[in-house]
Every structure is written in C-alpha cells, then in structure tokens.
Amino acid sequence: MKKLCDTISELASSILPDNGWPKLLSFMFQCVSSDSPKLQESTFLIFAQLTQYIGETLIPHIKHLHGVFLQCLTKSGSSDVRIAALGPVINFIQCFSSSGDRDRFQDLLPAMMTTLTEDLNGGQEATAQEALELLIELAGTETRFLRRQLVEVVGSMLQIAEADTLEEGTRHLAIEFMITLAEARERAPSMTRKLPQFISRLFCILLQMLLDVEDEPAWHTVENEDEDAGESSNYSVGQECLDRLAIALGGNTIVPVACEQLSAYLAAPEWQKHHDALIALAQIAKGCSKVAIFLEFVISLLVKFDCSTHHLFNMQISAFL
C-alpha cells in the first residue's frame, strides 16, 4: 500500500502543477471522507508527500483540506488515520508563506496534541513516537505557530519526559522537542525563557537522566580504561542536552537554575549525585562561562570540597578552563 502511495505521489508531484491529473484531487477528497480507515490513511500518506513537494499547488484547496484534517483528527477512531493526518498538516503549515494562512490551522494544534496523548495512554508508543518526530520538525521550522498554545504544548512534553513508565525513546523525543524549541532563537527569540517553570523542570529532568550510571568494583582494576563504562542512553542524552540547553538559552538564564539544583546534588550523600553535578558543570560550562556568578559557584566548590584529590572534578575544571 505504501509503495503504491509513493508511486502516486511521485507521478502527481510531476504533473499536477500542469493540471495533468485533473481527477486525482477530487478522488482523494472522496477517499478521506469515506468510512474506510485504510482509504483514509492511504490518502493522507499521499497528501503528506504532495504537500511536501508541491504544497503551493494545494493552497487553493486550503479551506476544504482544513475541514478534512479537523474531522479526521477529532472524530476518527483509528490512530493510524490520525497519525497519517499529522504528516500533511505539518507539511502544509511549513509550506505557507503567509502567517495568516498558517493561523487558519491553529485550531488543529489541540487535536494534534490529543492524538499524541491518546496514543500514549493507549500504550501505542510506536505511533506516538512518529507523532513526536513530526512535532519536532514543526518546532524547528515553524516555531511561532506554537506560540499561542505554547504553555499547553510544553506542559504536555514535560509530562511525557517525566513519565518513567514510558519507553526511553519516547521520553527522549519529548526532550528533543523542548531542546529544539530552545534552540529556535532566530525564529522566536526569548519565547521559551518566558515559560513558567520550563527551564527548571527541564534542567531537573536532564540531571535525573545523568543519574542513570552504574559502577562496578572490577572496573577499577582493569588495564584498559573504557570511558563510557556504566553509561546508559539516558546518561548520554542528558549530557548532550544539558550542553545544548546552556548554549541555546545562555548563562544568564541557566546559571541561577543550575546553581540551585547542583548545590542540592552536591549536598546529597549519594556518590551518584556528586558525579552527576560535576558532569553537569562541565556540560553547561561552554554556555555559562561568561557569567560571573557561575565562576563564583565553581570557585565555591573548590573551597567547600577537597577537590585537589578529586580526579573527576579536576578533569571537568580543566576542560572548563
């Protein structure tokens, strides 16, 4: 079915702009209005590719398409149909040159998020991950489209990232969505900085991911060191995203949150939290190095702890300097 959809899309993208297949669109509109989920899904797969390649050709049909998308996203009982509909919706939003045209699709965003949450609540994480990947693309290219409903969208993503009952891949995609938003400074400057509790909650999530590290006594006696020993995918994602977040938002925004949370980790009795805090310091150093309060915080650690014998701290501070 998908190969056939690909074939139709390739042919249509070449000849539709010249009105070479006049009956195709009317047939596709009939299919998405039918009672067959398979026909609806197939048609949306075709629309997804057409909107990506020749979206401007479909703009005259924007009113009709909007109604079709809204109907399927809100009324369809098939998660496959709803996920298939997300593709053309997001591609369509990206192809508009006018903000007015994009705003016509604002009322679809709650339905798009509902599609995601219903799949997660139903245990369909594979399809939910497809939806997350599409939403990440939207966050990176049309960030302003999310602005009016940003609090609700980011709130949902934070809940997904915090849910330890979900698969790691699902949580990582929710985090990637938020990091992508933070990095979209040119398209929407300062948008994420104004969100209540966004930075603090996300920083906390990333710190907790760094705790996913193991230690084995046998590793301390091996001849060849493996620097990645004991590290999980959570740990790796946490490291990368702390670095990206600090660079994206800047030291003035990150440092107050970091100082508060890292101080609590360093005061805790668990070695994992000490390790976590020191790794986090190195990861955010590039984005925070020009902020005086951050330098003061690092120096206070030197005074508070006997760090001259702390190999990990020395390595991290050397990298920072």
TrEMBL record:
InterPro entries: ARM-like, ARM-type_fold, Importin_beta, Importin_rep_4, TPR_IPO4/5
A GO biological process held by the record: protein import into nucleus
Superkingdom of the organism of origin: Eukaryota
Domain IPO4/5-like TPR repeats: 2-154
Subcellular location: Cytoplasm; Nucleus
Any Pfam family: Importin_rep_4
Alphabetical list of SUPFAM superfamilies matching this protein: ARM repeat (SSF48371)
Cellular component GO terms, alphabetical: cytoplasm; nucleus
Sorted UniProt keywords: Cytoplasm, Nucleus, Protein transport, Repeat, Transport
Source taxonomy: Eukaryota, Viridiplantae, Streptophyta, Embryophyta, Tracheophyta
Name of the protein in question: IPO4/5-like TPR repeats domain-containing protein
